[in-house]
Each structure stands twice: as structure tokens, then as C-alpha cells.
Amino acid sequence: MKSLEPVLISGREVLPIIEGGKGVAVSNGLSAGAFAAAGCVGTVSGVNADSYDQNGEVIRQVYHATTRRERWHELIAYAIDGGIAQLKIAHEKAGGQGRIHVNVLWEAGGTPQVLEGILTGAKGLVHGVTCGAGMPYKVAEIVSGFGVYYHPIISSARAFKALWKRAYHKYAEFLGSVVYEDPWLAGGHNGLSNVEDPEKPQDPYPRIVELRKAMREFGLDNTPIVMAGGVWYLREWQDWIGNPELGPIAFQFGTRPLLTRESPVSKAWQDRLLTLQEGDIFLNKFSPTGFYSSAVRNNLLNELEGRSLRQVPYSRAAEADMSEALPVGVRGRPIYLKAEDKARAEAWIAEGYSEAMKTPDNSVVFVTPEKSREIVTDQQNCMGCLSQCRFSNWAEGEAGTTGKRADPRSFCIQKTLQDIAHGGSIEDNLMFSGHNAFKFGSDPFYKNGFVPSVQQLVNRLVSGD
Q1: Which domains does the chain have, with CATH numbers?
Q2: Smallest Cα–Cα separation from 70: which of 383, 376, 387?
Q3: I need a surface site. Which of 44, 319, 436, 451 has the fewest CB within 10 A?
Q4: Residue 19 has pLDDT above 80, yes or no
Q5: For residue 95, how many other CB atoms are within 10 A of its CB?
Q6: pLDDT at site 275
């Protein structure tokens, strides 16, 4: 294994090891501070981080307002308070070592307001901001105004070129690195484009070479590229280290920090990581963001998959081959289906999936009455956690809506991520995970259920394992 040379990131030389940001209270001050203390980059999530009361207890994010817009303002306030609280913890634990970053998602609710609030309230505690999930043109302007480095997360050279030409070239001095997130292997929301096949992963090396070529055209020869997604053993990547074709390179670890003593996730969550098998991680498109995302297959994802499979196109009036009437809803108003689809629908109804819920795509899905009530309640309780949500039809703009029908094939992502982050069921909630999480079970480092400290994990990574 080649020795790891320090890389200049956010104004200081650090080990080229970066903690990947995981939102909604999972990448917190303790884990981020521990990575920084180990001479690396720690990352606090700025997406609905936990804050604490005067007794040190987590303040659960309960929403009291009656309108979505008012709840959206509550969500922003929670996020700012939580981000500041976690950054203070990270700063204290880091002891002046390493770098502390905060991670935000551009398509999350109120991100510009949250980012400005956190950077104002935690001034001097943040060295860099990582941002992905969308095309965050404005993040450079916001972050550089505080004298902080920005680290965009992209999945192609084409995306970075667009960001650079439109906005980033104006703030070149504060570009700390470019994070290449593998759209097939990374955990959480992935940047698969419409021209990329989710079933056909591509080798990251030529994609990184293309990215570096584009960066060199812009005079960014020495700006580090961070490889994120699919990184487990650094010995598997040693041909990348010191490679002049790639230039300065660092590696981001999002999944492995989950299984550390400083990680805030539950014991049940950590135990499940140790039992994962290859194929248990499911790249799906159920997220209300509309992006692909990578998560552990469980009851929640199985139910969502089944919900979409119990789906047929419909017409509001009899026409051509859609002439078979099916009464739905409490008033029994008919919708019109193809003959074969009506037979399928009647079979689902006989199995207990008796509620037909209309989608934005002129189709209906069939669910149980209990699930229908849950979906409607979750849609009504929307707190605007996304800039646009296909599940609830919320949008941050003045109209407050996407203008489309709410989509029952998706789910309330804020509800499930808050629940699993605070001890809720790992089978019935969204459990984001990188593709390589199945390696926990076969990696001898975790033999007999060993859970390392962050420092022990960093030592292991530096060794190549």
C-alpha cells in the first residue's frame, strides 16, 4: 500500500480521508469532530441536525403550525439550530486538528436560508461546505461570502463544466475540491442522469480523467478531486494515489463511519450492517426528490415496490380500449380501464388493496385502506423538507405547489429519516446505504461484531484496509 500524502483541503493539509455527509442527524458533531481530530475531514450534516434542550436531551422536530408555509419556516429554524449545535460539538472534539465541513443538499427545503443561518451562527467553526443533490449554482456565492470553501458534489464532468461556466468561475479562490460521487455505488441520493443506465455501472476512472481534463482547462490543476462512492479498501485504489493523470486525489467514506463508536445510529442499525449480503442494497427511484437513491432493501422498500406494481393506467371517460368501468372512492365514481387491467384491479381489491389512488401520470395504484389513510395524512402534514416534493406536491415558490397531483407512489422522506435516526424500526424506515455495505460482514476488521472508534477506523484505512 502506498503511503498517503497530505492533501490541501479547505486551507489546511490533511490526510486524504473525508467523512461523507449523511443527513437528518446521522453525520453529527461527535463523528465529524472525531474525524477531524484524526487529521482528516469531518462532516456535519446541515440537513435537519439535532439540537438539544437545557438538559442535553434531543429536541424532537415536532411541527405545530397549521400551514405548510409556516411549517417550512419551523423546519428552517430547526435546521439552523441543529447545524450550529453540532458544529460546536465538532469544533470542541476536533481540538484544532483537521477540517470541519458542513454538508447540505441543494434540493432540501430552505437550503440557502439554512446555510446562511448556520454559517452566521457558527462563524469560525466551519472550514468548508459540501453540497450536492441538484445543480447548486448559488452555493459558491453564499459560502464565499463567509470566507469558507465550497466543495460541489457532481457525478460527471459535464455537470461541473455547467456549474463552473455559469457561476463558479467568479469564486474560484474558494473552490476547495470537487467531489465526484459515483452515481451507481454511492449511498443516499445519486446523480444518475437520463442518459445513464442504472443497471450498467461505469468505471469511475475514465470519468475522473475526463473531470480532471475539464478542470485543467479552467486552471484547476491542483484542486483536489474527492472520489466518493464505492470506496472500501484504499489498497484497491492505490493506482490512483500519486497518479499524475488524476492530480491531487482524496477519498470519501460515507458508509464505513456508520459502524464506529462515535456514530449516532442505533445498535440495531449497526447490527444490521454486519449481516448485509451482496444484493441487499437497492438502487431505486421512490424518493420524493425524483432522484435515484441507494438504500437497504427492507419492508418499506418492498411495500413501495409492491405499491407501484399494483398500478394500471386509467381514463376519466370511456374511450377506445379503456372502456371497462371500475367504481372507486367513497362515492363509487367510475374510472375506465382496459379489460385486462380491470381484471387485475379486481384481483387486488379482493386481496384487500381496495383503495385506488390517482397518480400524476394518469394511473392508479391500489393500496389497503390503512395505507391510503397513512399516505393522505403524511401528505397533509408536509413541512416542506424539499424544495419540490412529488409526494406531497409542495414547492418552495410563491404558489407553494408543483402544480401536479401528489404522488402516492412515493413517501414522506423527512418522517422516515427522522424516525430511523432516533431509534425507529430499521425494517419499516428508509435505511440509506452505499453499495459496498455488504462488505461489513466479510471484512475481518469487524470480526465478532467489533465496532471501532473513528481513530481506529482511520488507522485501518491508512494501512490500506
Answers
A1: 7-264+439-462 (3.20.20.70), 299-421 (no CATH)
A2: 383
A3: 319
A4: yes
A5: 10
A6: 95
